[in-house]
Amino acid sequence: MLDSKPLLFPTDFPAIKRLSFLTLQVNLGYLCNQSCVHCHVDADPRREEVMSSDTLEAVLVFLRRGGVSTLDLTGGAPELNPGFRSLVRDARALGMQVMDRCNLTILEESGQEDLAEFLAQQRVEVVASLPCYLEENVDGQRGKGVFESSIRGLQRLNALGYGEEGTGLRIDLVYNPLGPSLPPPQESLEADYKRVLGERYGIRFNRVRTLTNMPIRRFGSMLQSQGRFAEYLGLLRSAHRTRNLEAVMCRTLVSVDWQGYLYDCDFNQMLDLPLDGGRPPHITELASTDLAERPIRVGEHCWGCTAGQGSSCGGALT
Q1: What is the pLDDT of residue 156?
Q2: Rounded distance between C-alpha atoms, residue 301 and residue 4, angstroms
Q3: What pTM value is reported for the model?
């Protein structure tokens, strides 16, 4: 795989600093039941990096101290970590909002037959990957049969009350472009998703989150092999909107890798750019660290979060 990291520095991306710390995003491991061409984590079924029980306990110790309102669980497929459910239960018992970044097909994996019911019982917010509402596009990006499995997963979650007004069970769908282009406007795309998925499959959901593909890891390597890396980076830079800098996720979030080390965001984690530079700090040190007004490490990949409508793990910013 071609390494895009050397192409991301130096950079003239604007300097930004942290605000208040509201969300702890925890990567429970790079193991996944899928292998997607756009994946910035390079997750697949062969990965062995999974957060240990000791590190999970360190995360929980930090959460018990308070001060963080949201626990954002990601991977890989976070549900494949043996400690996933215990962490969810404990965080919910603390009154925290818990988000599960779910690829939907995990609901049909062996050993996960009751996962949908567990998520509903714990009132977990599901952020579900579905990069298009058309079968050929999803299967082209994620593998044959993924779309049908995803639809079954959504229907199952809907049957439990997800996406239905008044239940409080929230499910958002995540869209990624199929290639080196910016996402379309989130509002109009959401209308298309709701129309097509509703009419054809009876699917209900709360909203669509549009995410820009980052020119790193697997997607960055693909761009280089096609000779389109510079072209794509130029597209991101030309579409930069300064006002998006106020809302990028790294200003209120800390990303924790599977070993417990800290980063400004999930993308910096994949580029091995630890929080503050130098020796990467650990989750066990976070409680004694004042992050307010700390500079955020930036590179050319950061233009992806401020391009067009802007995007981060929360979807479009404007």
Answers
A1: 97
A2: 10
A3: 0.93
